[in-house]
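Standup notes, structure subgroup. Blocker cleared on the AR6 input:
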Amino acid sequence: MPLKLIRADITKLSCDAIVNAANSTLLGGGGVDGAIHKAAGRGLLLECMKLGGCKPGQAKITGGYNLPCKYVIHTVGPKWRGGTHGEKETLQSCYREALRLAEENGCGSVAFPLISAGVYGYPKAQAFRVAVDAITEYLLTGDLLVYLVIFDSAAYQISEKLYGEIAAYIDDCYVERHSDTPAQQYSRLYDGESFPLAPSAPDVPCAAANPADDTDMFCDALKTCAAKQPVELEEALRRLDESFSEMLLRKIDEKGISDAACYKKANIDRKLFSKIRSNRLYKPSKPTALAFAVALELPLAETGELLQKAGFALSHSSKFDIIVEYFIRRGVYDIFRINEALFAFDQNLLGG
Ligand code: AR6
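Run returned:
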């Protein structure tokens, strides 16, 4: 199951369990703890009083009372003391223990705040990294839908350097788009790539290009390649009829990875993958198609090829596309890193 970053007030979420960043008394406090107790009502406090507290790094579960969720999982994060007092290990343990309790209690979904990143003073960027790493490690074998809830905009930022580089790349791409002819843009987009199968239709929005036009452009692109790469062309023509699902499964085989490894790396849940696998004509959304391209570590041209099978193309008119392209060009295929950047730029995220 995937990890989803969302901006929300955790007390409003109706998933099976929400996690509370509590203190060791479990009797309420400020921050998210205060908000949860306030929204849940007195019943929560009465149940918490019977629990006998909780040690840092551990977790306990109660009902959700007036909250829209079934359960509240209370965990106690470490207080930041410079990072040399086992804070990271304690924080990792908070996520692991809370996930274990959620699973034991039959939850299908659980939402976390950024534990310790408020009153307890854990540096936000580091707290975020520990959260993402602990949750993604769990998801390698676990089967929960996990939300990481970002409450205030200051609570989350990718490094200034990365943010600046991506912002500059977006600017450059916009400039390119508005100063070149479509043909120039196209050749630049696939600069250095050997097999440009997915022409980014000029002035056609990224979401849904006309499939008929796409096919024509696709054939034109193939013909253009003919002189240079006759063998590849022959193979590509043979694959013209291949659907998105077929291409995806073929590429998974070619990479020699398992289906599960692929959909987990793509941050896609098993059910969605099964649908794609069993329906050769399944049309995924653009974030889903791109997530698979990233999971398969496809270079830009092959990414375009896979997207084209779903009726999409990468476009320099879309910030979302440009950001994903930024990472692919640099060979960075960690979907969570890419999603962090997309999140920072208020874009849709990759995955299911
Ligand atoms: N929804 C989601 N996230 C929230 C919400 C909300 N409604 N409110 C705050 N956050 P903190 P800690 C975020 O201070 O650092 C309490 O007094 C907030 O922006 O709630 O683990 C307890 O009783 C921040 O990113 O928890 C303890 O004494 C994150 O939740 C102590 O604070 C955690 O901030 C625990 O401190």
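Discussed briefly. The longest helix spans residues 160-179.
Next: hand off to the docking folks.
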